[in-house]
Specification:
six-stranded parallel β-sheet; Helicase, Ruva Protein, domain 3; alpha/beta; Rossmann fold; 6 strands; 3 domains; Zinc Finger, Delta Prime, domain 3
Length: 351
C-alpha cells in the first residue's frame, strides 16, 4: 500500500521520490489540496521554476483520449529539466486507465499530480494509486488545532510577529474550514499588526470574524446566480480589503463542487431542498433559498465547464502572482455568463 498518512503528507511531498511519478492529492478541503499539490510541484521544479515546467491537462480530454496523458508525460521537455503535469478531476468521467498506463511505463522527466475532491475507498483512481508502488495517494482532512497552530506559527514567523495565547485560541476558533482561507486570514491579521509588539486578542477581534466569510458567500452567490453587477462589487470589495483573488476562486471552486454533487443527487431522486439542508459543511440558513435556486438552474455540463475554468484560474494565479487578482476576476465574470446563459435558455419560448 502507498497511502500516505495525513500527518506524513507534507514530509513526503517536500521530497519527491524519482521512483514515484504519480501523486494523487484528494479531500474536501480544496484549499489544502491545492496547497499540497503546489508544494509538491515546487519541490519537483524549484520555487522559481518557469511556466514551461508546469502543464495542466483537462480530465475530460484525458477521458476522451487516454493516450493524451502518456503523450505529454513522455514528451521531452523543450528546455530540458523536469515537468509537472497537473490534472484535476472534474465530473464523473474516469481517467484511471490513462493513469494506469503511466504507472506501467513511467516517464523519466515528468511527474503527474492529480487533485480531486472527496473520493470513496472504492473509487478506481484512489484504489489504483493506493495499491501501486509507483504512486502516492495523499488524503487531506479538515485542519486540526495542531495544523492551524502550524499555519499561525508559519505566518507570524514570516511577519516577525508574536501572538499571545488568548489571541491564538480565539484565532483558531475563527478559522479552519479551508486551508487557503485560513492562511489568507492570518496574513491579513499579520499585516494589520505590522510594526507592533505582537498580535493581541483585540487585533483578532478587530480583523478576523464572520464578516469576511459572509462577504465571500455573497460574492459566490452573485457568481452562481449570474448577477454580474453584484459579483463585480463584491469581488472588488474583497480584493481591496486584502482578500487574495485566489481565495475567492478557491471558495467558488468548492461551491461548484457542491453544486455538481447536488445535481447528481437530485438527478438520482433526492429533492433539492433536502440536499441543500444536508450539506456539509452546513449552508447558512439565509443562503439556502439562493443555493436551492442555483442547484435547480445549473445544468451538469455547465457546472463541469465552470469547474474547468475555475481550476485553470487557480493554476494561472499561482503561476502569475502579480496578475492573480485580474486573472481570477476575469474568470469569475466568464463563469457568471454561464449562469446567465442558462437563464436565457430556460426563459426561451418553446417553438
Amino acid at each position: 500500500m502507498v497511502q500516505i498518512k495525513p500527518a506524513d503528507a507534507d514530509r513526503y511531498l517536500s521530497r519527491p521520490d524519482p521512483a514515484v511519478r504519480v501523486v494523487l492529492v484528494y479531500g474536501a478541503d480544496e484549499g489544502l489540496v491545492a496547497e499540497r499539490a503546489d508544494r509538491f510541484a515546487k519541490a519537483v521544479i524549484g520555487k522559481d521554476g518557469d511556466d514551461f515546467a508546469r502543464l495542466r491537462l483537462d480530465s475530460a480530454a484525458i477521458a476522451e483520449d487516454p493516450a493524451t496523458l502518456a503523450d505529454e508525460a513522455h514528451a521531452v521537455p523543450l528546455f530540458g529539466g523536469t515537468r509537472v503535469i497537473s490534472v484535476r478531476l472534474a465530473g464523473n468521467r474516469p481517467i484511471d486507465k490513462a493513469v494506469a498506463s503511466i504507472l506501467n511505463a513511467p516517464p523519466e522527466d515528468s511527474w503527474i499530480v492529480l487533485t480531486a475532491g472527496e473520493l470513496r475507498k472504492t473509487a478506481p483512481l484512489r484504489k489504483l494509486c493506493e495499491s501501486h508502488k509507483g504512486a502516492w495517494a495523499v488524503a487531506t482532512y479538515a485542519d486540526t488545532d495542531r495544523d492551524l497552530d502550524g499555519v499561525i506559527d508559519e505566518e507570524t514567523k514570516n511577519a516577525g510577529l508574536s501572538i499571545t495565547a488568548d489571541a491564538r485560541s480565539l484565532l483558531r476558533s475563527l478559522i479552519g474550514s479551508d486551508r487557503m482561507i485560513s492562511r489568507s486570514e492570518v496574513r491579513k491579521l499579520c499585516l494589520y499588526a505590522a510594526g507592533t509588539d505582537g498580535i493581541t486578542i483585540d487585533d483578532v477581534r478587530e480583523v478576523i470574524g464572520d464578516s469576511g466569510a459572509f462577504a465571500i458567500d455573497e460574492t459566490i452567490d452573485a457568481l452562481a446566480s449570474g448577477d454580474a453587477a453584484a459579483l463585480d462589487r463584491g469581488y472588488r470589495r474583497l480584493v481591496s480589503s486584502g482578500t487574495p483573488g485566489s481565495v475567492v476562486a478557491g471558495a467558488a471552486l468548492r461551491h461548484f463542487n457542491f453544486l455538481q454533487k447536488a445535481r447528481f443527487a437530485v438527478d438520482g431522486g433526492d429533492t433539492v431542498d433536502s440536499v441543500v439542508r444536508r450539506a456539509i459543511p452546513p449552508i447558512f440558513f439565509a443562503r439556502q433559498p439562493s443555493v436551492t435556486r442555483q442547484v435547480s438552474s445549473w445544468a451538469p455540463a455547465r457546472i463541469e465547464r465552470a469547474l474547468a475554468l475555475l481550476d485553470q484560474a487557480m493554476l494561472d494565479s499561482r503561476l502569475h502572482g502579480t496578475l492573480a487578482d485580474e486573472i481570477v476576476g476575469q474568470t469569475l465574470e466568464l463563469v457568471a455568463t454561464l449562469a446567465a446563459s442558462d437563464k436565457r435558455t430556460r426563459a426561451a419560448p418553446t417553438p
